[in-house]
Amino acid sequence: RGPGPASRRRGPGRGRPGTLTVRIGDMAVVRGQEENQVQGIGLVTGLAGTGDSTIAARQAILTLLQTQSIVLDLQSVSSANAAVVLVQATLEPGIKPGRQMDVRVSSLYDCESLVGGTLLHVELSDMSGNTVYVTAAGPITTGAFSVEGQGATATRNHLTVGTIPMGGKVEREVPTQIVSDHGYVYLDLRALKGSF
Question: What is the DSSP letter of 68?
Fold first, then answer.
């Protein structure tokens, strides 16, 4: 004798209890374990005539020379081979002092290209500018190029934005508090964009 009416209506697998396993880390993050952004203003040198033409770049060069007891006036300094840049880095939760990390470099003024440039030592701080968390320096990698020919030019990627792989060093750990003053650990739901 075949299956009864109830079995035919239910069909295979329907109405049977099942389980769904989801990791807490996929749904929420621990409050106090967020990423932190740090940034600073630096000077890139070694550019092949593609640097800034602004007073800010020449003033930065003068300041650098003064640290080496070289005194010049603003009019005698050329900034064609240098550029003022914004340097940024992202601190992962719990990262410890001494760790190396990538930093991002982007031109602030009218620099034409950062290709071949080297970032001089710069300090990266929090948004208040009071506490230094990272120091950075080194040759810039842009992954870009620009070629000019007779009646045509070719450019790939941004010439004024680059990275320094492992060019940053963590100098200070960001203070975090996972357990609240009342002894609780708070979980914040992630902003999921999935469909149901």
Answer: T
* Partners of residue 44 on adjacent β-strands: 83, 119
What tens-digit pLDDT sequence spans the chain (196 residues)?
555 555 455 555 454 567 778 787 778 777 777 889 999 999 999 999 999 999 999 999 999 999 999 999 999 999 999 999 999 999 998 899 999 999 999 999 999 999 999 999 999 999 999 999 999 999 999 986 666 666 666 666 789 999 999 999 999 998 877 767 777 888 788 776 655 5
**How far lies 53's CA from each of 59, 122, 138, in Å?**
11, 21, 23
| Residue whose token pair is 């080297």 | 118
According to DSSP, the β-strands at 100-107 and 145-149 are unpaired
Cα–Cα distances in Å, from 95 out to 12, 24, 80, 131, 168?
51, 22, 38, 16, 13
Tokens representing 59 are 């003033």
